[in-house]
Structures are given as structure tokens and as C-alpha cells.
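Q: Hand in one record:
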Amino acid sequence: MFRHALCATLTWCGIAAVSASAHAESRLALVIGQSAYRTVTALPNPANDAKAMSQLLGDAGFEVTAASDLSQKDMTDKVGEFAAKIAAKGPDTVALVFYAGHGLQIDGENYLVPVDVDPKREADIPFQAVRLNDIVNTLNSVPSKMRILLLDACRNNPFPAINQTAGRGFALVDAKTGAPGTFLSYSTSPGAEAEDGNGADSPYTTALLAVAKQPGLQIEDAFKRVRVSVNKATEGRQTPWESSSLVEDFAFVPGPAGANASLPKTPVAKRSVEEWRRSLQGKPIEVANEMIVGDGTVEAYEAFVALYTQPPFGPQARLWLDRQRRMLAWNDAVVLNTVAAYRAFLVQYPDSDLTATARKLIERLRYRPSPLPVVAAAGAPNAAGPSGAAPQGGPAASSQPITTALGPTCPCTTPTLPIKKVDAPPTRKLREPDPPRRTSSRPPRILSGDDDVVVVRRRPPPDYYEPGPPVGIGIGIGIGGYGRGIERGGPVPGRRGNY
């Protein structure tokens, strides 16, 4: 009996050690529930959702910061404080943000809605709400192991002043284009609205609470089950969506398999439409629908709608596929942010909920300074890809040359040829001439005495010659061929001099 008790104790100690090793990483969570909106009808479930998620994450080893009914300032402060905690814990930290409440998109940007928001027009939302990209950028600004964002948002737009022109739901966000190690989940697919539910929690949170408690279940597999569960609970009206750039495994509740959580992930090859058609062929429609919902790729839905048309699954899958393609095309247009991109979107989708936004952005771009176009070099790949195909979900490539914007310029500016640097020969330093000597302008001073004479150098007068008869004998003093002749008896004729 003692031996059996000892073996049982050692077994439980081994399981606990495996679980503890999985918890060696730091786990931090920020949980926000927005129910008590001040200017629109309150939401009953977000407060319950936040409370239940706080309990789940606390049991899973997270240090939870819970907050509810936050204003814009409170929400930004909480996110900043949460980032500071991540930085203090160090780079081996799993950071998780759960948000339940209203969310919407304006001009292709996603916003989480504080309880004090009171917009009169679309332009008020960026000043009164909190941009999702700002939260993501704040989390990316500090080193961490991974970042998980779970957004139980996108209920119906409750603001009458903007619900006729703003796009429905959230815009698509591709986590693969940002920093690796990010997992983003929406409670419904991009461009769609989520339901608050009739129970104590929303359909999304209800499914997440049940699935996340399973020990050792990896996060990608967990959210496949969440998609299927929510789709069934709402009879196909709501299907969650996620985007991931995780490079390591993660499970909410570690189990024996959680000991390998630090191993790098193995990429899963995406199946083609033809491969999906072969997999779905001959299966009951309910089973086939569950398979494509769990996969969540465009290829799976394309194969399904080609094989099954019976309601309700056939029309629901067609609606999901059309909406997903539209949101992919809208994402391409927003990323390019050019008049041509928005016009191409309008040609493809002239009567969607994003038509008014696309036209508004076209009008706004009319006032942007014109960039200086630079024609791409011959043979260089264009923006549509090396094959000339359009970006995913975007318009077809144009035959016109692709131009690159170098920045604003005035119309009078013309491109100039590049200046080639040439090595100049060494230059000799010229020596400046000495300044001319200054001479005194005062007349020469003659000292007293017969033989004491002061001679001053100055410009010689013009020469002249005056012949005359020789008179006596004189002594002449000359300086430089010129001079003043002095003789005891008078001038000496026939000599050069100055008289």
C-alpha cells in the first residue's frame, strides 16, 4: 500500500513539474469589458464576458489586470501601464489582451469604443475612440514572447449619425505583415457583425471558455473549435476569424504535451481548391460545412460552394466567401491608398457598405500634393507581382508603367541628371604680393653744412639736355644715373640733372 501511495505521489509530482515548466514563462493579461455606454443602449454581456475570462486566465497562470467601462483616457492609460508591466517582466512574456464591447471601422481603420464616446459624425471617432493599431503598436514596442489579442466586438453599430455610411464590422488585419509572434482573433469575420447572445455570455466567449479549458490544446486548434461552435450556436450567422504569425506553440491550460511549448512551429501547407474538392466529395453537407468552417480558408469555401447549394449551408457559405473577397479587396485598396486603387474597388464592388467610404477617400486624395513620378526600370517587377497578377483580392494589373512616389514637389520642379563626382587636380596656393611701400609726402629735409645732404628716393623727372659752353671744373654727385649736380661755382652745363 505504501508503494502504491508513493507511486501515485510521484506521478502527480511529475505532472505538476511538467505544468510548472510550461508556466516558467511570464503570463500577463489585460481584460476589458465595456457594458455601461452613456449615449447608446448598454450592452449586458461584456461585463460578464470579462469577468469569466479573468477567472479562466487567472487559473491558467496569467497575472490578470481587469478593467471595465473605461473612457478613452482610461483605456489608453491601461494599455500603457500594461506595456510597462510587459517590459518589467522581460522578453520571455506572453501578453494577452481580451476586449468585449463595441468596435467599428472608419476609413479602413479599426477602433475600440470607450463608454464616453458621443460621435456626431464619422470624423469624431478617431478623436473619441481608441485605434486598434495603436494598441498593437504599443504592445510591439516592448520585447515579448508573443502577443494575443482576442476581440469580442463588432456588435451592430449603435450610433445613428454614422451607421449609414461607416462600413460594417471590423476591417481585415493581416498579422503576418507585422512583427512575428502575434495572434489576432475576431468574434466574427471581417465586415460582419457579432451577436451579443441571449445567455450570460456572448456566443464567442461562451465557446472560448469551454475550449480553452482543455489541457494542452494548442491555440490554433482551440480557435478552430471556437469557429465551429459559434457557427452552430448562431445557425451560421456568425463565424469567428483569426490571423496568426506565431512562431511558437501556446496552450491556455498546459498539460503533459505543454512541455514542448517552446519548440518552433512547423508551417502547415495550405490546400488548394482541387484538394478540398476531393476531400469534401461525397460527404454529408453538415460534415462538409463543419470541415470548411474549422479550416476557415477561401480555398475551402470555394470548393464547398461548387459542390453544395442546399440551404442553409450553401447560401451561408456563399455569403461568407463574397464578404471575405470584398474585405480582401478593401484591404488592398486601403494599403495602397491611391485614387486608382479605390476606383478599382468601386468597379468591382459598386454597391457595398464600403462604397461611401471609398468615394470619400477618393475626394480626400484630390487635395494631396502630387508626387514626382519615376518610371520603373524595364523588366522590373511591378506592384502586382512578377507575373503581373493583381494582389490578392485586388484589381487586375494595369499595362501602364508603375511609378514610385518620391515625395511632394512643386509643379515647376524638374528632374535633373545625377551629378558625377570628379577628382579635381590639386590647386597651388597663390602667394599674395607684398603691399607697396608707402613714402613720405613731406619734402626732403636738408641739414645745415656744406657737405651734409639728405637724398630722398622719388619718381625721377623727365630727362632733358641743355647744351652750353664749359665753365670751370665741377664735382657732380649722382644716384642711379639721375641726381642733383652741385658745384662750387654753379651748375655744370652738359650734364643730366635737376635744377
Observations:
- The CA atoms of residues 25 and 77 lie 25 Å apart.
- Residues 274-365 form one domain.
- The longest strand covers residues 26-33.
- Residues 1-23, 376-417, 447-451, 472-499 have pLDDT under 50 and may be disordered.
